[in-house]
Structure formats: C-alpha cells, structure tokens
C-alpha cells in the first residue's frame, strides 16, 4: 500500500491530497501543528503534529509539504530531507508536463496546468490549477505559480517568489528572489529581489 504523509492540513493540502488520490496513492495522512485540536482536513485524518511526522517517517512511501508560505515550505522541506524523508512530487493526470521538463522533489502540478519542454523547476515548486509555464523557463526553490498565471518562454523566477492568480509574465523576463507579483499583473521587465509589484504594466508598491 502506498501511503502519503502531508505536512500542513490546509486548503492547499486538500487539493494536494485529492491530486494524490488521482495519481494512485492508496492512503493520505495529514500532520499539522494545530493537532490535536485539528483532527481532520476535509475527508482526510490529521494524525499528529510535525514532530510526530518526524518520528514516523519510515511508515510512509512519500512525504509532501502543503504550506502556502514559500519560505516556510522551503524550510520544512529542507528539514524533512535532512531527516531522511522520502520526498516525492505529484503531477495531476489532467495536467500536461513535457517529458523534457524537470520537476524537483516536493513539487506539485495541479489539474489543467501546462509545463512545456525545457522547463526546470527546483524543489518545492507549486504550479497551480490552469497555469502555464512555457518553454525554457526556470523556477527557483519554493516558487508558487498561482492558478491561471501564465509565463512566456525563457522566464526566470527566483527562489520563493510568488506569481499571483491570473498574472502574466513576458518572455525572457528575469524575476528576483522573494518577489510577489499581484493578481492579474502584467510583468514586462526584469524585477529585483524582494519587491511587490501590481498592475498593468506591473509596478512596485511599498511594503
């Protein structure tokens, strides 16, 4: 029996668990630091907190992190990998991922997403529902491409950056680390590290 442990009993976790079932995982068990007050995440049980998971890693065929905060997700994945967790990736059967794309461990691709040839996504990347990542893009560690966002060819997105729902990024644009691109923004030029941009065209705002 293939049993998957998911750290983070969130709404994102529900989508991840549903995707895992579509991918043929037999059983999904959540762990969350809100346990024991949190006993379930929708259809799926919460069996303990993060320390419980660390103590029970040998019980699971695979482990994933369902935490939306990119920095926290990267940290938890690093901790799990150092502890010997069997980190896996998931691709929903109704997503389209080129055989010539690379997905790092702990990454997920949800239904309706398209990932084209030459894409490299590092560990812990989320490519969310109905988004698209065109040819030769690079996605750094713990990047999140939100639902309906579209990256043209050759885009580079730095570690832990977040491309908001419905956003668009012009071809060959370079986005730095820890950048937030707002919903429906249009990124047409390079962005430095650590800024938040909104609008059409996307312009920086003060944090």
List keywords for this structure.
207 residues; alpha/beta; six-stranded parallel β-sheet; 28% strand
What is the percent of helical residues?
10-25%
Provide the structure class. Answer: alpha/beta
Shape: globular
Number of helices: 3
Short description:
The chain contains three helices and 24 strands. It is α/β, with parallel strands linked by helices and 207 residues long. The strands form five sheets. It has an eight-stranded mixed beta sheet with strand order 6-9-12-15-18-21-23-24, with helices on one face.
Molecular structure report:
The chain is α/β, with parallel strands linked by helices and 207 residues long. 15% of the residues lie in helices and 28% in strands. The chain is built from 3 helices and 24 strands. An 8-stranded mixed β-sheet has the order 6-9-12-15-18-21-23-24, with helices on one face. A hairpin with a 4-residue loop joins strand 23 and strand 24 (203-205). The longest helix is centred in the middle third of the chain and has 13 residues, at 70-82. It is globular. The mean pLDDT is 97.
Secondary-structure map:
Blueprint: E1 3-7, H1 11-22, E2 27-31, E3 40-41, E4 44-45, H2 50-55, E5 62-65, H3 70-82, E6 90-91, E7 96-97, E8 102-103, E9 108-109, E10 114-115, E11 120-121, E12 126-127, E13 132-133, E14 138-139, E15 144-145, E16 150-151, E17 156-157, E18 162-163, E19 168-169, E20 174-175, E21 180-181, E22 186-187, E23 196-198, E24 203-205
């Amino acid at each position: 029996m293939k049993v998957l442990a998911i750290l983070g009993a969130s709404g994102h976790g529900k989508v991840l668990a549903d995707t895992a079932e579509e991918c043929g995982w037999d059983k999904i068990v959540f762990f969350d630091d809100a346990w024991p007050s949190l006993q379930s995440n929708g259809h799926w049980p919460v069996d303990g907190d993060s320390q419980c998971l660390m103590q029970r890693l040998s019980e699971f065929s695979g482990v994933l992190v369902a935490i939306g905060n990119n920095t926290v997700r990267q940290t938890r994945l690093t901790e799990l990998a150092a502890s010997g967790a069997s980190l896996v990736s998931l691709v929903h059967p109704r997503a389209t991922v080129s055989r010539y794309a690379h997905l790092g461990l702990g990454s997920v691709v949800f239904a309706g997403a398209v990932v084209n040839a030459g894409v490299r996504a590092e560990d812990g990347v989320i490519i969310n529902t109905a988004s698209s990542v065109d040819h030769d893009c690079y996605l750094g560690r713990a990047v999140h491409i939100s639902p309906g966002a579209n990256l043209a060819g050759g885009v580079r997105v730095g570690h832990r950056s977040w491309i908001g729902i419905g956003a668009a990024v012009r071809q060959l644009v370079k986005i730095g680390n820890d950048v937030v691109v707002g919903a429906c923004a249009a990124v047409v030029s390079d962005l430095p590290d650590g800024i938040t941009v909104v609008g059409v065209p996307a312009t920086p705002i003060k944090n």
